[in-house]
Design brief:
It contains 25 helices and 14 strands. By secondary structure, it is an alpha/beta fold. The two termini are 40 Å apart. About 4% of the residues have low confidence.
Length: 648
């Protein structure tokens, strides 16, 4: 039982003993710095069951705690707040337990607990990873590490989207314009090479579309398209989005009124481009023919697909290594896209699904506040939902100890996962209760939103290199690298740059959209990765200087300096922070805890002499305390996937 639990139980006993009342819970908070105390009991909520003056109630409970809890040495009451002072002996006993515990804060795995599978990355094989993928993989990897630290067994996975029309676009462009180019002949990473041909396809298609839409035939077809009811599906409530005076788009009396809004016309033309691709485009027709050949197992097409995907996988592996993430198992869409159909058939029998007149199969989720969702087209082909149902079930077959899954996917897919989890639950799988969508917002740069089809995407590899270069420029300006070899400098730049990138992303709630500024993230002051890394390196310098200091001196009996006590209180919080971060799938809790710890250490460092302490006992203790802080920084940053340098 930890101290807060002991205090909570004793406060309840005090209320029972002194006031003959039953208290269900006790509200704690940190003691404000202007008052003496280490933890505060809020008295006001007790007034619902204990009548009286809150100050007097606090005084009586405080006295009861002093008499019955050996760790409580004193108290004071400020209005309705009972500030409790904890003895130095308690904190010293805690410190002696953790000072040589290298994995302090991490829970031991419980063999009885079910495992968790965490999915992240899951890229398309038609282009390299970009900044958006970076947030995904950094977030997913960190959550997986935090879950492991909380005592869970974790499987890291991804599903690689290696089939579909987008893949065939790159294949067709390479076949038309590649002239046999390979990663070896071009000197490019395979994913970059394939991505270039995806961009090439889009350029050719855009030229074709622009010429057609401005032609007489294009204008005629577009006007016909405007008369179709498709706009009602596209804009069911554009009143909200475009401030049209009518309450529903269906109430707009004519198309002229509807298309009088530039934003609507722009979005409508974008949608029409997809219609053009499917119905009129020459190059689009070729890409669809190639997809049908792949699906039918055409030898030449499958060979081309295998070769180009192989290039991409090699490129992805390099990027993942550079970013510092890994996977335990991989799934491929080409192997899973047919999964799920058998469960649709089973669901039809049990009433989970129903069939419409055209033969399509649906799930009615209206009672859950959603709508009807298609799971099988009228021609019997599966949709993405069907595939995801089948893949989830297959994963549990592959790893029977799985009891839950975490999907790291952007927030634009929130509805999809809401539906997916409901359907799996309706199919009767008990682990459906433990499915979680780790939703996150977009990442923007100061220059604007990323776009991949136009070739202006922020490449992940280039970003990692840029971060290292920026770290190098700033480090050189600050003059922090005396005595480093060039090789050591380059390794340090990469550590600082990648740490800055990861920390900047992970310190923010995943659901929030991020404006990422590389230079802002590499700052040796403030809530940044480099600031925390620099503090860790500073502690390592202290430890190197203190090598000759004996660590065998008993420091159990020691009167603590206020700054020492504050550090110990922060260290004590770490295991709870890890568990909370796991419960909420939030690396931000780890990141911001670490920043607070580092701020507390720097205040300690500035106010208390470590190596110049008055006595050997104080010196040994402060060195050991510094080492314990460094260990927690290293462990916490490890959960974020960030390395800490021994020197900076």
């Amino acid at each position: 039982m930890n101290l807060q639990e002991t205090l909570s139980n004793t406060v309840k006993q005090a209320v029972k003993s002194v006031f003959n009342a039953e208290l269900e819970s006790v509200e704690f908070q940190a003691t404000r710095k202007e008052f003496a105390g280490d933890i505060t009991v809020v008295v006001f909520p007790m007034l619902r069951i204990v009548k009286g003056n809150p100050v007097q109630i606090g005084e009586q409970i405080g006295q009861y705690l002093v008499e019955n809890v050996k760790e409580v040495k004193a108290f004071n009451v400020v209005k309705g707040f009972l500030n409790i002072e904890i003895s130095d002996a308690y904190y010293m006993a805690f410190f002696n337990e953790i000072k040589e515990h290298m994995s302090y804060g991490f829970a031991e795995p419980n063999s009885k607990d079910k495992a968790v599978m965490v999915e992240y990355s899951s890229p398309n094989t038609n282009k390299p990873l970009h900044l958006g993928h970076i947030r995904n993989v950094i977030l997913g990897y960190s959550v997986a590490e935090i879950l492991k630290a909380s005592g869970k067994k974790v499987y890291k996975t991804q599903i690689i989207n290696d089939r579909g029309i987008h893949i065939c676009k790159s294949m067709l462009a390479w076949k038309r314009f590649g002239n046999g180019e390979t990663p070896e002949s071009s000197g490019l990473k395979g994913d970059k090479l394939v991505g270039n041909y995806y961009v090439k396809f889009e350029q050719i298609f855009q030229e074709e579309y622009s010429e057609w839409i401005n032609s007489e035939q294009g204008q005629i077809e577009f006007e016909k398209f405007k008369e179709t009811p498709i706009w009602e599906k596209l804009f069911p409530d554009v009143d909200t989005a475009y401030e049209i005076s009518t309450s529903q788009m269906t109430k707009v009396e004519n198309n002229e009124e509807f298309f009088s809004h530039e934003s609507i016309v722009k979005e409508f033309k974008s949608y029409f481009k997809d219609s053009y691709f499917n119905n009129y485009s020459e190059i689009g027709s070729e890409a669809k023919t190639m997809l049908r050949k792949w699906e039918s197992g055409d030898t030449e097409t499958v060979a081309l697909w295998t070769m180009m995907n192989g290039w991409v996988y090699d490129g992805f592996d390099i990027t993942y290594k550079n970013v510092g993430v890994d996977f335990d198992t991989l799934y491929y869409e080409s192997q899973t896209y047919l999964l799920g159909k058998e469960f649709v058939a089973e669901g039809l029998k049990t009433g989970v699904f129903f069939k419409k007149e055209d033969g399509s199969v649906w799930c009615d989720l209206t009672q859950e506040g959603l709508d009807e969702k298609i799971v099988l087209r009228s021609d019997g082909t599966a949709v993405y939902m069907t595939q995801d149902i089948g893949t989830a079930i297959q994963r549990v077959k592959d790893f029977p100890d799985i009891g839950g899954m975490v999907y790291t996917v952007g927030n634009e897919q929130e509805y999809h996962f809401q539906v997916l989890f409901l359907i799996i639950k309706k199919l009767g799988f008990d682990w459906a209760e433990n499915l979680y969508h780790l939703s996150y917002g977009m990442v923007d740069l100061p220059s604007g939103k990323m776009k991949s089809r136009e070739g202006t995407v922020v490449d992940a590899d280039d970003l990692v290199i840029e971060m290292a270069q920026t770290a190098g420029e700033i480090s050189e300006e600050l003059g922090k690298l005396d005595g480093y070899s060039e090789e050591e400098k380059q390794e340090l730049y990469k550590t600082i740059g990648l740490g800055a990138l990861k920390y900047f992303i992970l310190k923010v709630d995943p659901r929030k959209r991020i404006l990422f500024d590389p230079k802002e993230s590499i700052d040796f002051q403030g809530n940044t990765g480099p600031f925390i890394q620099y503090t860790y390196a500073r502690i390592q310098s202290i430890l190197r200087k203190a090598q000759s200091t004996s660590h065998t001196i008993d420091v159990t009996e020691l009167e603590l300096h206020t700054k020492e006590k504050e550090l110990l209180k922060h260290l004590e919080l770490f295991p709870e922070v890890v568990q909370n971060a796991a419960d909420h799938y939030s690396p931000a809790l780890i990141a911001n805890y670490t920043y607070d710890l580092v701020k507390e250490f720097n205040s300690f460092y500035q106010n208390v002499s470590i190596l110049g302490a008055d006595t050997d006992i104080e010196k040994v203790f402060r060195v050991q305390l510094s080492n314990a802080v460094a260990n927690v920084i290293k462990n916490a940053f490890g959960l974020l996937g960030i390395d800490v340098p021994e020197r900076m």
